[in-house]
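Hey, quick one: can you model this chain's 3D structure?
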Amino acid sequence: MTKVLLSLHVLAAILAVGPVAVAASMFPATLRRTTGDRDGIRAIQQTLHRICRVYAGIGIAAPVFGFAKASSLGVLGDTWLITSIVLTAVAAGVLVLLILPRQDRALTDAVSPAETPPATASRPAMDLVRCRDRLNPAH
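Sure thing. Here's the predicted structure for all 139 residues.
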């Protein structure tokens, strides 16, 4: 049973958390896009936001299977597990309290996507992009 729970935990993490990470990181780039079909860009933004919302809900399966696995192993009080739980909670909090609301605001602004300032993008992703651009100006 432990192997089944581990497999389900890993599959849930890969199949649910991965798409959220990719979609959330792609969203700010679509806000900065100033050329091309504006309706197409808007459709991409809506799709990326939908992926973030839906897969965030599905992503709850990863910690559920993780808790079941940890319980079956009897390691619920171990430091590594508590650290993992805290990091997962922080990541979920950033997604639910910062990234998704900012994506909502960016999508509901009356300004067209090409004119939307980057400040409405998800702040953590934008900070990462700025750091990357400072470290690698040729990018």
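One thing worth noting: The helical segments are 2-32, 38-58, 61-73, 79-108, 123-135.
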